[in-house]
Design a protein that fits this description.
3 domains, 6-stranded mixed beta sheet, 460 residues, disordered N terminus, 53% helix, 8 strands, 8% strand, disordered C terminus, D-Maltodextrin-Binding Protein, domain 2, alpha/beta
Length: 460
């Protein structure tokens, strides 16, 4: 195992777990425990992970059959995480863990995969730029252009060669895996004739949907400069000052620093191309953020650990995120306790609306399904149809025939910067508002076990 000296002259092992790795891991796990649920863009993959682990080959009952989403998405990522987590399902059952714990574990698995990738990147940067960045700038001024001209063609040939090989391999994999899963949806919902063929390459379809059809604008638009002036500064706030300092100050005879420019230029081109599309989301440029962080970290090579620090986002406010963590779990547990203390009550039938699903209510929380609980998240229903449910999880609290079951879940509304600056001890910086309501049938006590849920439309 290679041993190297860092910029402070101390011997270090680039592959060992150091204090900054521990800092990264602790921060990652803190994030997951503080906010274990997912945004709407991830709900498809999260539900797929659940289905892979608990339904395995029962594809016809997978969640995506009923809720396929706007565009086709790949199953490769969810299948990979589920394959890693699957053996732990039996361990969790033996020690009394629930599906919720498997959900958190799957999030940690994803975090660890990202951690190992970032650690390899960090080690590569240390190996390539381990000499002090500033003191050797004069020497690099002479060799950089030579190496650039001498090696760029060979590197380009290798990149193109590897790109072609890996493209063929992964396109073949996605065609095989995604065609297998999406064929079930095609057979149930879209097939018109018996001999109709079907193949699926989700990423190509997404490209076709977003560019050629240009339908992504139906989900909102932003100006062309939004990524550069809003998304990137907010996402890599700590790295930006270092990056600008390195580009301008460490020029070594050029207008800007070419070494840093080499690192961030692919990210700039990547973001620039995405800026052409009118519909913009931060998640679209996630791959580019690491390169911006890397460019900022190159300026601080006297402290190589800055690469790990710069890639860590801020931890959510504890008082807000803690409520978000336990809301769905406490709701289900409290309903479960009530049902046990009142055995004559019917089995719960929960409906979660779009906003609840957007904020993370997923299939891992259907842990009482084996004992008769039912769950539903059908969209665009008239209010008269909600009385078939015993409980609602919604961003509305005005459904006729329902009452508030517990205190609403509060979430972020805005920042109270001016008042907070005036008196930080008295005024809160973050303003919260009611976001999610847990509702229960008003006549829940009148229902009897074994009977169908009665629907009364008189007051609707």
């Amino acid at each position: 195992m290679a041993i190297e000296k860092d910029t402070q002259g101390q011997t270090s092992n680039s592959k060992a777990l150091d204090k900054w790795d521990l800092f990264f891991l602790v921060t990652m796990i803190t994030h997951i425990l503080a906010a274990p649920y997912t945004k709407v863009e991830e709900i498809f993959q999260v539900n797929n992970i659940y289905d892979h682990i608990y339904l395995t080959n029962d594809v016809e009952n997978y969640d995506f059959i009923e809720f396929p989403g706007v565009v086709y998405r790949t199953f490769i990522s969810s299948l990979m995480i589920a394959a890693i987590d699957f053996p732990f399902k039996y361990i969790f059952v033996r020690i009394g863990f629930t599906c919720y714990h498997m959900h958190v574990f799957s999030r940690i698995t994803l975090g660890l995969l990202n951690y190992f990738a970032l650690k390899r990147l960090r080690s590569a940067v240390q190996d390539k730029y381990r000499d002090d960045y500033i003191t050797n700038s004069f020497f690099l001024m002479f060799i950089y252009d030579f190496l650039r001209q001498k090696l760029s063609l060979d590197i380009l040939k290798k990149v193109i060669g590897y790109g072609v090989i890996f493209s063929i391999v992964f396109i073949s994999i996605t065609l095989a895996i995604d065609t297998f899963f999406w064929r079930e949806y095609f057979n149930q919902r879209l097939r018109k004739t018996e001999d109709e063929s079907f193949f699926m390459w989700p990423e190509l379809y997404v490209l076709y949907y977003n560019t050629y059809l240009n339908k992504s604008h139906e989900w909102g638009t932003s100006p062309w400069y939004w990524y550069f002036l809003a998304a990137i500064p907010k996402s890599v706030t700590v790295a930006i000052p270092f990056l600008l300092f390195g580009l301008i100050y460490q020029r070594r005879g050029h207008i800007i620093d070419l070494q840093i420019l080499d690192v961030i230029s692919p990210a700039i081109i990547f973001v620039g191309l995405y800026s052409i599309l009118p519909h913009k989301e931060l998640r679209f440029i996630f791959p580019a953020l690491t390169l911006f962080n890397l460019g900022g970290a190159m300026v601080t090579l006297a402290y190589p650990c800055m690469l790990a620090i710069l890639t860590i986002q801020e931890v959510p406010p504890f008082d807000t995120s803690t409520k978000t963590i336990v809301t769905y779990q406490l709701t289900i547990k409290s309903i479960e306790i009530e049902m046990k203390s009142n055995p004559v009550l019917p089995k719960p039938y929960l409906h979660s609306d779009v906003y609840a699903s957007m904020t993370g209510f997923n299939r891992f929380l259907y842990e009482n399904e084996p004992i008769g609980w039912k769950y539903n998240r059908t969209e665009n229903m008239p209010d008269t149809e909600y009385l078939v449910y015993t409980h609602l999880i919604s961003d509305r609290n005005d459904y006729a025939g329902f009452k508030l079951y517990k205190e609403p879940v509060k979430g972020f509304l805005s920042l109270n910067v001016k008042e907070w600056i005036k008196n930080p001890l008295k005024n809160n910086l973050v303003i919260l508002s009611d976001q999610i309501y847990i509702l229960e049938r008003e006549d829940i006590q009148q229902l009897r076990i074994g009977s169908e849920v009665k629907v009364n439309y008189e007051n609707v």
